[in-house]
Design a protein that fits this description.
Two copies of one chain form a homodimer. Chain A has about 280 residues and is an alpha/beta fold. In chain A, about 50% of the residues lie in helices and about 15% in strands. Chain A folds into two domains: about 170 residues, Rossmann fold (3-Layer(aba) Sandwich); about 100 residues, 6-phosphogluconate dehydrogenase C-terminal fold. Chain A contains twelve helices and eight strands. The first copy, chain A, has an eight-stranded mixed beta sheet with strand order 3-2-1-4-5-6-7-8. In chain A, helix 6 crosses helix 10. Chain A is globular. Chain A starts with a strand and ends with a helix. At the A-B interface, helix 6, helix 7, helix 8, helix 9 and helix 10 of A face helix 6, helix 7, helix 8, helix 9 and helix 10 of B.
């Protein structure tokens, strides 16, 4: 089995490690427009060989697209000559625009997936073996994919230890805005609010675990996240509205010294952890 | 040496474990208005004995106040009969109102401290040995405390592995709003924004590490945090304004599709981690 991985950053690189561990005999072929990433991926053993062009990867049995969403949409247009049994799996953070962009000729070959995992680090050196273990992967509009491709994708994700959730692409994008995209906007805003204070260094000298947790994802790649915000603009704006409504409630209760109501509102927030 | 710990929750209980480990011969006397907490603290070995009233604890050489800020202010009024060499250390999350409330009679006995540590859990069963290790403790207005009390507090905090930062109470409260209080308001708001969605369960089924980190402190005790928000109202409102200004910038750039500006703004946020 030949597996192509397009994009050798955190997601693609970690996938290489996980696949290699589970299937030592499979051949892993990497591709990345960044030549430093290619040599790092080889050195770190994330893939076995590097392909020089997208066209040379079409012979693979499985092709993973672990690049920003815009890149996925562009790459799909150039993958029309894959083998009939080829399975193309994208790992993009938004799904509706990607699914809508798949050329009809390869729609059966295509699987829309979003692994709900990551760290704030990026590039091949950020790749870790455990990234996918016991994490959720969302598969969207699966009935539009071929039967062989469905089986192949399910087996691969299960074999690297993932839990599978099925969802419509539009539903995925709405939910992902709340669970991932909007929280990134909050973390970036928190980091900037502190950084713009004159006393930023004295403030961060006091940072405990809470602040470190809240600001961790503010380290994330701007290139990746601008792309996600663009692709999921409408849902992101809606989720931001819902957040801002809650924050304004909080601000107003503090302003008006409505401490009992604030207490009740915090108790409501505590309940999240009954379902999480 | 007799050490009294008033409040046997996460902070007081963890302090008991840390002190017991460092000074096996010291006698630790606990006090808590919650009788279940008292019996749990004894069972878990957080303290050696339980005192029945605040008055019976005044004979201690050191008294820690690890209760909500309002409780600290009330307790200080009843501790006027401590021994001249007694060191009273409060661990409250805000400092200006506490410092202002100390009866002049015991001002030399008093040390205002804020350990920048915690977890989202609370009560004696949440106590852990490592809570204070290698964490920062802020000591405020230290020159107003007696020389013996300064030495005693510095030694105790250093002996349990803490790094010490000195600050004026007003400055502490401004900084703590940014680094701790406002982030709690964000986390509670995020949790409520998700919980009020019809599809809350489907949304949280997708939660990855980012969301778990951002919503962790939304599990925190409403009783404690209403108290903190009340005590630090003005600074909290100011820090919320600064946050909201950044979030609104982000929202506006997404709305107007100013992707280059958004990219630059995210790069600014990345810089937090150069100083954190």
């Amino acid at each position: 089995m030949k597996i192509g991985i397009i994009g050798l950053g955190l997601m693609g690189g970690s996938l290489g490690i996980a696949l290699k561990k589970r299937y030592p005999s499979y051949q892993l072929i990497g591709l990345d427009h960044n030549t430093l990433h290619c040599s790092q991926a080889l050195e770190l053993g994330l893939v076995d060989t590097i392909a020089s062009t997208l066209e040379s990867i079409v012979e693979c049995d499985v092709i993973f697209l672990s690049i920003p969403v815009d890149g996925i949409i562009a790459a799909l247009q150039t993958l029309k000559s894959v083998k009939p049994e080829c399975t193309i799996i994208d790992l993009g953070s938004t799904k509706a625009k990607i699914v809508a962009s798949v050329p009809p000729l390869i729609r059966k070959n295509f699987i829309a997936a979003h692994p709900m995992t990551g760290t704030e680090k990026f590039g091949p050196t950020a790749a870790i073996e455990a990234l996918y273990q016991e994490k959720v992967v969302v598969l969207c509009n699966l009935e539009e994919s071929g039967e062989h491709q469905q089986k192949t994708a399910l087996k691969l994700f299960r074999d690297i230890g993932m839990r599978i959730v099925f969802m419509r692409a539009a539903e995925h994008d709405r939910h992902a805005a709340f669970i991932s995209h909007m929280p990134h906007a909050l973390s970036f805003s928190l980091a900037n609010a502190v950084m713009r204070q004159e006393a930023a260094k004295s403030i961060t000298a006091l940072a405990g675990g809470g602040f470190r947790d809240m600001s961790r994802i503010a380290k994330s790649s701007p290139e990746m996240w601008v792309d996600v915000f663009r692709q999921n603009k409408a849902n992101l704006l809606t989720s931001l509205e819902h957040f801002s409504e809650e924050l304004e409630k909080c601000r107003q209760m503090v302003q008006d010294e409505e401490w009992d109501a604030l207490n009740a509102w915090m108790h409501d927030a505590n309940k999240l952890h009954d379902i999480l």
